């Protein structure tokens, strides 16, 4: 078997590059995801409306989170789900509520780090701003309208101290205090430049009508293929827009392959495919739209009930449901190869990575692992396995949170990455295609006997 032509490596990478460049914030990632799914025939549903009953592909968007699912034309209400979960947020510097600062003849913006960023990587980059602004509006029932903006201009810079004033930094190592040393410069002057006035220009509103905002910085350098044979991708936010994009591509593909959203299949599908992209993974997932929220469980339950099922059918469906928590995996760094577990080296362009950790920082168990192995076999791609050294702690994902929240078998897998949480990470150009093909096979496993 070979990888499906739908997941051609070069086409997938150029799609991913466009997706990343257009998604400097979780809100923009959701907007891009919405566009991709609507192009594939999905319909946007308002969560306040009744859950759709008719066969078709649907999605809901809740701030920086998105959930897409398919209602097949046939199949019992207790049919289990195959879910791919990922996250839309990445570490960055976020603007404080009263950000206007002046110091030593400089205009600056007060910021707060979001998530576990590699502080040093934000130094001396040309930073832009993006996010969501709440604007007073007579048209909206709530009196407030949320508007997105994405300013691609290089506006800000966190300037590093010259080496001459920091003798010994190369021997001592660089220590940055987030309150003191990560404050970006955005102009010269003895009086503060009004950030609210800037926001007003960005969203076409009077400063007095700006009632709130979620605004963040991003590196303005675009994603790019690099390397001797362009076999690598250097890009911001690969953790976890790579998984978000691969999941969206996989869902659109399996829906199209089944004849379009809600098409009459010849045999009842064994699973209903679903994709959920959560906000707030980098800060613990506890929000109304994070992985610790009822977002996923509620969508599964409402889908079962809308199909004519009962609460009993909901629990029956969960018994066979599997979630793939899709997030990035640490590739072996050649300068620090000793930090990796022997026998578990991870290569860029080596294929998707199954992630295993006995203290359940990753949710994978043997049975969950089997679903990923079968998906890789079906997609015709190799599988790598990651385990940490026993003397080193390990990061986590939405996997264990989702497993505990919904109560379903969950498996952690990802694509290999270097420099995770740097402002600019490094991946392999052949991986996104193999990753998306694997997620598609996971969402729609070939039924035994086929
Ligand atoms: Zn991640």
How do you describe this structure in short?
The chain has about 450 residues and is α/β, with parallel strands linked by helices. It has eleven helices and 20 strands.
Structure description:
With 450 residues, the protein is of the alpha/beta class. It has two domains: 3-90 and 236-443, 3-Layer(aba) Sandwich (Aminopeptidase); 92-220, Aminopeptidase i, Domain 2 (Roll), CATH 2.30.250.10. It is 27% helix and 27% strand. It is built from eleven helices and 20 strands. The chain has helices at 9-21, 26-39, 169-172, 178-181, 195-203, 238-257, 295-306, 311-320, 366-379, 398-406, 431-443, and strands spanning 43-44, 56-62, 65-71, 81-87, 92-103, 106-114, 127-136, 144-156, 185-188, 210-219, 224-226, 232-235, 272-278, 322-326, 329-330, 353-355, 384-386, 409-414, 416-418, 425-428. Strands 1-2-3-13-4-14-18-16-17 form a nine-stranded mixed beta sheet, sandwiched between helices. A five-stranded mixed beta sheet has the order 11-12-20-19-15, with helices on one face. Helix 1 packs across helix 6 (238-257), helix 1 crosses helix 11 and helix 6 (238-257) packs across helix 11 (431-443). The longest helix has 20 residues, at 238-257. It starts with 8 loop residues before the first helix and ends in a 7-residue tail after the last helix. The model has no long low-confidence stretch (mean pLDDT 95). It binds zinc ion. The site of zinc ion has 6 residues, from helix 6. Zinc ion (ZN) binds at residues 87, 239-240, 281, 327-328.
